[in-house]
Amino acid sequence: MLQDPVDKKFLIEEYIKPNTTDPKIIQAFLNIPREEFVPPEQKDQVYLNIALPIGEGQTISQPSLVAQMTQLLGLTGYEKVLEIGTGSGYQAAILSQLAKDIYSIELLPQLAEIAKQTLNRLGYKNVHVFTGNGKQGLDEYAPYDAIIVTAAAKEIPQALVDQLKDGGRLVIPVGKDFDQNLKLGIKKGGQLEITDIEPVVFVPLK
Ligand code: SAH
After folding, report:
1. What tens digit of pLDDT does each residue of 139-184 get?
2. Which residues are within 8 A (CB) of 121 and not within 5 positions of it... i.e. 6 or more apart?
3. Among the listed residues 27, 38, 113, the one whose alpha carbon sits nearest the alpha carbon of residue 70
4. Element (H, E) at 168
5. 138 lines ligand 1 (CB under 6 A)
6. pTM to 2 decimals?
7. Per DSSP, what are the bridge partners of residue 176?
8. Are 148 and 162 in contact (CB under 8 A)?
9. Structure confidence at residue 5 (pLDDT)
10. CA–CA dist 114, 206 (Å, integer)
11. What residues contact residue 97 under an 8 Å CB cut-off, 6+ apart?
12. Of ligand 1's atoms, which has the minimum distance to the CA of residue 105?
């Protein structure tokens, strides 16, 4: 089904603008076609503020949460960002508009492959997708200015703290099942200073 562009405007007014003060983030949501990142049977729901299934038991996050997590990263356009949990590639595509280079790791090869194809087809050349276990980060391109994890970790993986620059930001849901909290960590003198943001529900980081 063809998307009604009015739906996208509604989504942005109601769910994106309340979660960010950054006009560049709002523009990124206008630019990125979410309908390209979901299976065909989900396309008519794509401008609702809900998570949607993308196959392999995984989901694309709800847009308001993508906006909020993006805002927490505090990007200015020059950063090297690491994402754990590529999924559909949608969050990475949003980040591609807001930072210099995005490195994104996905555990499941099938999802990584689809995300790569989508991102290539749409021409987001500064997103680099890798298959692997994101708990170990991606040492090859470290250190990162910002790291975003889009699956819930039982605890914050030390490798991610190690691969973050001093002054860098880590946004990560921590916890299990329905007892998860979104956290913002800012690295200072080798340690994370952590702020609890709000309860969230993500698929588990495996
Ligand atoms: N950011 C995604 C949503 C991700 S859902 C989007 O915009 O669509 C979480 C993803 O994390 C799933 O695709 C899941 O397969 C992946 N994942 C789970 N554990 C992981 C791990 N240890 N390393 C890398 N990816 C992982």
Report:
1. 999 999 999 999 999 999 999 999 999 999 999 999 999 999 999 9
2. 36
3. 27
4. strand 164-176
5. no
6. 0.97
7. 179
8. no
9. 64
10. 20
11. 24, 27, 28, 31, 32
12. 24
CA of 98 to the centre of ligand 1 (A): 20
Tokens of 6: 């009015």
Helix (H, G, I), strand (E, B) or coil at 9: helix
Tell which one of 29, 52, 58 to mutate to probe ligand 1, the residue whose CB is within 8 A of the most ligand atoms: 58
Amino acid in the structure at residue 81: V
Q: Are 97 and 75 in contact (CB under 8 A)?
A: no
111 lines ligand 1 (CB under 6 A): yes
- Our answer to whether residue 61 is catalytic in this structure is yes
**How far is the C-alpha of 24 from the C-alpha of 53, rounded, in Å?**
27
Which ligand 1 atom sits nearest the alpha carbon of residue 115? 8
